[in-house]
Every structure is written in structure tokens, then in C-alpha cells.
């Protein structure tokens, strides 16, 4: 493979402006991450309350969720946290009161889920339910053992109407993971109440912490109300009771470190084997500095930039074998390695025309034939519109690309480094097309189309309706409505808005892109990588 020759002007004014804008965005993201890691759930809006919640947990001799995860993981190994800012921009706690991610336990890459008891006692709201379900889906499709570090008060009762129906899928998914031969392990450190009791109840392995774990469908107050029985917590759902009497507990741990030690030992005896092909060559760092990724993406997503400069700083040795470089030039396609794993890449260098759609569909079929995972790098404003392009068949050609993406069975990774508008999101394997992972840069924007375009469409439609009734359209009077709409779309298009609603698996620092994608590829290759020759009808 040939090495990409970088033409990035790292001393230019555009690079400097882009870098400064990216660093400013990262400062906000880092602040939010720090608030989530600190605990409490307010996202930094109420530091005193957060500190009190953490202090209360500490006074009970308990660890924070990420501290538990740190003791569970192999020493010095990485933890790829997923959806850390779930719930941003909603009335749910920032982070959802749940930590999820991928890490190595006793040499086995696992999906780890940990309740944060400093956030409403670990109670589950809408964001935490969605985040937990996403984690289970990642465990299923990538064939990763699931370890749940549980301490939860159950449902956030004031929000029961939002979570009761979707939350039930958590228990279904646990049993389906087990049925698929994917181990499920639950370590309980505190309360596991009501629906939360089914998490250990439906897991393959259960570890309860002595004098701390409480697992029951109904706590003492509910039992009193339901059947007028006075029951103490230990007799009703204590760890020793479940270890000696009910049989729910498979292991009784002396304390938190002991529970985590037992969890590691369980993983060690699973005899777990990865079924993916793994790396085909040694991992080689890129030839260019990863820090330069900060200045490549335009601060304004309407301004194009050269996507090969991104590829050059994330793939092994900056080597890239480009496919059809002279045809359909606004879509870059080709083969590379990342962390030693072979990958196919589709990356946007502009709007999609018919040629780009056909080129992309063909390239995906080749990746399917050779059973190579695909990385989609999105910076796309959509498919081209206009009479010339409609008559030229842009609909049926775009459908070929979406057909190929939809029916592709090799794993997809999606990286969003700029705009993601309209059907371009679909043609480049957006969230609704089930990529294994979706990660975004802070400058990312996602919507049906850009705010200015949407505002303009709204005004044209309003003008046509007014004039159809024989009246005169007042553009001046309409202007405040258009401006308000554009502001709303802008606010709902940001990377933070998207990640808060789990449209992706996390906003990442561009400098971490290679590391994040490498960890994701390792997770993907825990499962077989299998291509398909089965597609819907391609309209010719």
C-alpha cells in the first residue's frame, strides 16, 4: 500500500482557526466528562449536592463505579467508556447514573455495566434504560461477556411511565445473551430492588457482597403494605440468606474488592475464545502526528476539508490503497489496516452524486466478498438534488448505496467528523443502519439538513401557501419565525444534543480516534466477521 502524502498546512491560518475551535469545544466536553466522573448526577450544576452524595457513599465504605471497574480490569489495560454524556440536554441526570464500556478482565474483553449509586441511589431513568439496552446490544452483536456491577434502587418512580415498557427488554436481553452462549455475570454491592432484582435473577453467575447486598422484589415497606408482614432486610433479601437459603447467590463475597476478585476468577474459568480473524499484521503507528487532527476539520461544517488527511493520521503507517480514485471523487474508498486489522474505508469529500453512490455500493460488495470490516467517515451534506440529477437517476443510484449498506453483514464502524445531513447519514451507515459503533468529533452536526436550508424551505413553503390564497407574503413579518426555527434546528443538531440522546456511542477527542477505533475493532473481532452476497433488488 502507498503512504498518503499529506498536504496539510499546519502553519496556515485555517489550521490554526480550526484547531482553536476544536480545543474550545473539547474544553466544554472535558468539563462535562469530569463532572460525570465526579458523581452525583448534576453534571456540575450543583457541586455541593454532588459532593454530599459522594461523601454519603464514602461514609458507607463504598467505592465509586469507575473505581469498581478499575479493580475489575486487568492492571494497566484500557477502558473504552460508552455514552458517558447520555442524558445531556434532558431532565435525566448527566450520564444516566450508569457507566458502560469495554475493558479486559482476566485477558477477556468484556462489556461492563455499573450503576452509579451516587445518582438517585442508582435508580433507573429513561437515559439509563436506553444506555443499558445499548450496552446489551453491543455485547450481543460483538459477542462480549457482560458483567453487571449492580447497586440500584430500581426504577426512578416519578418516571415510571417513561421506562416501564422499554425497561422490560433488559431482562429479556439478559436471557437471550445467555441463550446465545454469551456469559452474563452480576456482582451486587448494595440494593437490587424490584425490577433490579431480576438482573441477578437472570444472570448466569451471581456474586453478592455480605452485609451489603439486598436483593428482593419488594422491600420491607412494600411487603408490609402488600401482605401486612413485618420483615427485616436480611431475612427478606440479604446476601447470606440468598447464599444459604434461596440459592440466588452463587458466591458470597466478604467485601467489594473480594466481589471483584471473584468476578475476575469467573471470567478466568469461562475458557472464552474469540471467533473473529484478528489482526493480519503488526500494528504500525501513522506517519503523521495525531495532534494535527485538531486542525483538519473545519470549524464551520459548511466548509469542506480533505478527508484523506484524517485517514492518514489514523491508519497503520498512513498507508491506504485507494479504490477508483479518479471516479466519483467526492467519495474516497479504499483499504487500510488499523491496529493490524484490515479495514475498508468509505469517507466523504463532498456531496454524493450518482457516481459516488455506485462506487460506494461496489466497494461495499467487495468488502463483503473479502469479509473485511468497514469504517465509514462521515462529513456529508446529502445526495445531490436538482433537475439534472433527478433525471440522471440520483434516486435509484442512491438507493443502490443504501441497499448495499443495509444488507451488508460485515461489521461497520462509523466516525462522524463533520456534517451528517439527510439521506447522506443513511448512505454512510448512520445509527439507524446498525453500525457496531458510532463515534463523533465535537464539531459534528446532524439533522435533516442544515439550519439555513431548513429555514429557507420553511419560508418557501409558507410563501407558496400564502400566495395560493391570493394574499401577499410578508417576508419581514415571517423573519422572526424563520430565525427561531433556525436557532432550534442549530441547537438540536449539535454533537452534545446527539450524544445526550444516544444517537452515538460517545464524543471523542480527535487525537484519541485511532485508539478508540482500535479498541472497537478488537471488540468486533470477538465475533465472527462474515460477508454476505444477499441484497435487495438493485434498480439499474
Indicate the topology.
Layout: H1 13-38, H2 47-59, H3 65-72, E1 79-82, E2 98-105, E3 108-115, H4 126-142, E4 146-152, H5 160-167, H6 169-179, E5 184-193, H7 198-201, E6 205-209, E7 214-216, H8 220-227, H9 233-237, H10 239-246, E8 251-253, H11 256-268, H12 308-311, E9 321-323, E10 331-338, E11 341-348, H13 354-370, E12 373-380, H14 387-391, H15 394-407, E13 412-421, H16 423-427, E14 437-440, E15 445-447, H17 451-468, H18 475-491, H19 495-500, H20 513-524
Parallel strand pairs: 3-4, 4-5, 5-6, 5-7, 6-8, 11-12, 12-13, 13-14, 13-15
Antiparallel strand pairs: 1-2, 2-3, 9-10, 10-11
Tell me the strand percentage band: 15-25%
Count of extended strands: 15
**What low-confidence regions span 5 or more consecutive residues with pLDDT below 50?**
none
Structural class: alpha/beta
Give the proportion of residues in helices: 40-55%
Distance between the termini: 33 Å
Shape: globular
Overall mean pLDDT stands at 93
Tell me the radius of gyration: 25 Å
- The helix tally amounts to 20
Query: What about the largest sheet?
Result: 8 strands, mixed
Amino acid at each position: 500500500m502507498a503512504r498518503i502524502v499529506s498536504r496539510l498546512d499546519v502553519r496556515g491560518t485555517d489550521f490554526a482557526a480550526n484547531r482553536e475551535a476544536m480545543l474550545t469545544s473539547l474544553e466544554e466536553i472535558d468539563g462535562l466528562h469530569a463532572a460525570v466522573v465526579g458523581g452525583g448526577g448534576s453534571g456540575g450544576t450543583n457541586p455541593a449536592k454532588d459532593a454530599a452524595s459522594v461523601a454519603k457513599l464514602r461514609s458507607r465504605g463504598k467505592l465509586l463505579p469507575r473505581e469498581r471497574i478499575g479493580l475489575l480490569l486487568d492492571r494497566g489495560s484500557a477502558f473504552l467508556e460508552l455514552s458517558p454524556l447520555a442524558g445531556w440536554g434532558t431532565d435525566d441526570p448527566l450520564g444516566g447514573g450508569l457507566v458502560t464500556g469495554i475493558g479486559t478482565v482476566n485477558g477477556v474483553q468484556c462489556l461492563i455495566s455499573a450503576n452509579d449509586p451516587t445518582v438517585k441511589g442508582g435508580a433507573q431513568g429513561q437515559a439509563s434504560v436506553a444506555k443499558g439496552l445499548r450496552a446489551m446490544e453491543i455485547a450481543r452483536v460483538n459477542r462480549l461477556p457482560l458483567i453487571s456491577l449492580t447497586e440500584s434502587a430500581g426504577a426512578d418512580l416519578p418516571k415510571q411511565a417513561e421506562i416501564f415498557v422499554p425497561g422490560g427488554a433488559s431482562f429479556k436481553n439478559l436471557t437471550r445473551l445467555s441463550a446465545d452462549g454469551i456469559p452474563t455475570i452480576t456482582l451486587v454491592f448494595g440494593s437490587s430492588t424490584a425490577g433490579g432484582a431480576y438482573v441477578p435473577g437472570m444472570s448466569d453467575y451471581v456474586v453478592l457482597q455480605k452485609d451489603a447486598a439486598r436483593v428482593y422484589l419488594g422491600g420491607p415497606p412494600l411487603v408490609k403494605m402488600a401482605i401486612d408482614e413485618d420483615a427485616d432486610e436480611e431475612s427478606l433479601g440479604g446476601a447470606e440468606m440468598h447464599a444459604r437459603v434461596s440459592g440466588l447467590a452463587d458466591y458470597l463475597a466478604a467485601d467489594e474488592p473480594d466481589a471483584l476478585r471473584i468476578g475476575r476468577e469467573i471470567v478466568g474459568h469461562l475458557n472464552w475464545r474469540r471467533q473473529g480473524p484478528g489482526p493480519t499484521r503488526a500494528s504500525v503507528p501513522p506517519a503523521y502526528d495525531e495532534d494535527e487532527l485538531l486542525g483538519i476539520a473545519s470549524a464551520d461544517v459548511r466548509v469542506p476539508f480533505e478527508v484523506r488527511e484524517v485517514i492518514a493520521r489514523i491508519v497503520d503507517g498512513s498507508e491506504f490503497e485507494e479504490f477508483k480514485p479518479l471516479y466519483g471523487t467526492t467519495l474516497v474508498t479504499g483499504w487500510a489496516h488499523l491496529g493490524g486489522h484490515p479495514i475498508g474505508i468509505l469517507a466523504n469529500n463532498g456531496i454524493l452524486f450518482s457516481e459516488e453512490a455506485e462506487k460506494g455500493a461496489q466497494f461495499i460488495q467487495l468488502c463483503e466478498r473479502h469479509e473485511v470490516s468497514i469504517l465509514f467517515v462521515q462529513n456529508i451534506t446529502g445526495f445531490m438534488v436538482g433537475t439534472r440529477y433527478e433525471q440522471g437517476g440520483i434516486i435509484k443510484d442512491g438507493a443502490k448505496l443504501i441497499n448495499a449498506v443495509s444488507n451488508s453483514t460485515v461489521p461497520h464502524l462509523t466516525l462522524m467528523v463533520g456534517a451528517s445531513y439527510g439521506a447522506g447519514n443513511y448512505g454512510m451507515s448512520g445509527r439507524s443502519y446498525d453500525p457496531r459503533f458510532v463515534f463523533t468529533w465535537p464539531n459534528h452536526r446532524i439533522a435533516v439538513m442544515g439550519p439555513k436550508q431548513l429555514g429557507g424551505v420553511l419560508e418557501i413553503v409558507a410563501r407558496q401557501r400564502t400566495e395560493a390564497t391570493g394574499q401577499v407574503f410578508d417576508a419581514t413579518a415571517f423573519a422572526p419565525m424563520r430565525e427561531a426555527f433556525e436557532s432550534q434546528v442549530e441547537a438540536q443538531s449539535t454533537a452534545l444534543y446527539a450524544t445526550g440522546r444516544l444517537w452515538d456511542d460517545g464524543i471523542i477527542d480527535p487525537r484519541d480516534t485511532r485508539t478508540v477505533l482500535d479498541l472497537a475493532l478488537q471488540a468486533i473481532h470477538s465475533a465472527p466477521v462474515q460477508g454476505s452476497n444477499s441484497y435487495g433488488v438493485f434498480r439499474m
